[in-house]
Amino acid sequence: MCGRYVMAADPGDLVALFEVDEVGDLPERSWNVAPTDRAPVVVEPPARDDGPPIRRLEAARWGLVPPWAPDLSGAARAINARSETVAERRTFAPSLATRRAIVPVSGWYEWRKPERTPFLVHAPGDAPIGLAGLYAWWKGPDGAWVLTSTILTAEATGTLADLHDRMPVVLAPELWDTWLDAETEGGQDLVDAVVAAAAEQVPALSLREVSRAVGDVRADGPSLVEPVG
């Protein structure tokens, strides 16, 4: 699973990396993004009025809330979507069809059992990683719209299997455009393709033991990702 992650990249770097056209109101960088926190996502809504699609970097509340939900209370239970069943789930299937996102992270945390030792999973230099995500818009009683998101997970492979039986789906860069394209059919076949490609991304990732302070959702700052020992 993915229950806590780092988003410490400069927004300008994300704009360049993901070829973003427009940027929304983004939160401050965080070294301890927790469920229901706001964090950047890359989305590309369907084009309107025969114009080209606009790729946006927006802030989304982590934990997908479908439009039909009565309130936001279920968000924390929908921070992850299992890739094996996402196309069958009422909560996620509509978003999989046309509202797919890239969730940029600088790494994510996993706790190795049984001693619950925290590790940061990261790319060389803590470079941004694009995770496969979904998004949805939820309209509150006051008429305000809330953008929400979830991260797809799959069976862990390689060195990551020693930490947890699940891992977030790391999108291969060559699939970024396809995943975001609302005109591409979003079904189980697409999910299976990105999951298969994700397994090939794992060997490039590294593990770093970090401080147990990351277990406190109130903790934040660069010190959380510093190696211990």
From TrEMBL:
Keyword Hydrolase, does the record have it?
yes
Q: Is Zinc one of the keywords?
A: no
Bilayer-crossing residues are: none
Q: Which UniProt keywords apply?
A: Covalent protein-DNA linkage, DNA damage, DNA-binding, Hydrolase, Lyase, Protease
Instruction: Identify one Pfam family in the record.
Output: SRAP
Q: Known InterPro entries for this protein?
A: SRAP, SRAP-like
The protein's Enzyme Commission number: 3.4.-.-
Q: Give the family, as the similarity comment puts it.
A: Belongs to the SOS response-associated peptidase family.
Q: What is this protein called?
A: Abasic site processing protein
Q: Which organism is it from?
A: Agrococcus versicolor
